[in-house]
Design brief:
Helix content: over 70%
Shape: elongated
Low-confidence stretches: 24-32
Distance between the termini: 86 Å
Oligomer: single chain
Number of helices: 5
Largest sheet: none
């Protein structure tokens, strides 16, 4: 009985130690290590409306979006002192994300997705260009 009690106490102390170390690891990062489910849902729902996804595509794309947003937050935090490296890492993440999307989406959906990305990437000209308002 004593052995069982000591074993239980040891396991309890080890688990509390591991939890404390895990909290220390993420103490410097803002928010939690989990990406907001509402962000993932909004992003995926918007893509679903634009690309007319089926249920299987929606599920797979939601998982890819969760990974992308979590990694994007991580990159922005990790490389906040070095904008050039941050930009390079984000470009690499976007390439990986597009490759994953090409495995999920049909060719016509992928074409619409790329057109939408190009449209979002090109800044619109100012409305009052060179004239008096």
């Amino acid at each position: 009985m004593k052995f069982l009690l000591l074993t239980f106490a040891l396991l309890l102390s080890l688990s509390s130690l591991a939890t404390a170390q895990r909290k220390d690891k993420f103490a410097e990062m803002p928010g939690s290590e989990e990406v907001s489910e509402s962000r993932v849902a909004d992003m995926t729902r918007q893509m679903c409306d634009q690309l007319h996804l089926n249920e299987a595509q929606y599920i797979r794309l939601r998982a890819a979006n969760r990974i992308k947003l979590a990694r994007l937050d991580e990159i922005q935090w990790e490389y906040k002192a070095n904008p050039a490296q941050q930009h390079a890492k984000i470009a690499e993440l976007e390439a990986q994300y597009e490759a994953e999307c090409s495995r999920i989406l049909t060719p016509s959906q992928l074409s619409m997705f790329r057109n939408q990305q190009q449209h979002d990437a090109v800044p619109s000209p100012p409305a009052n260009e060179g004239g008096m308002g």
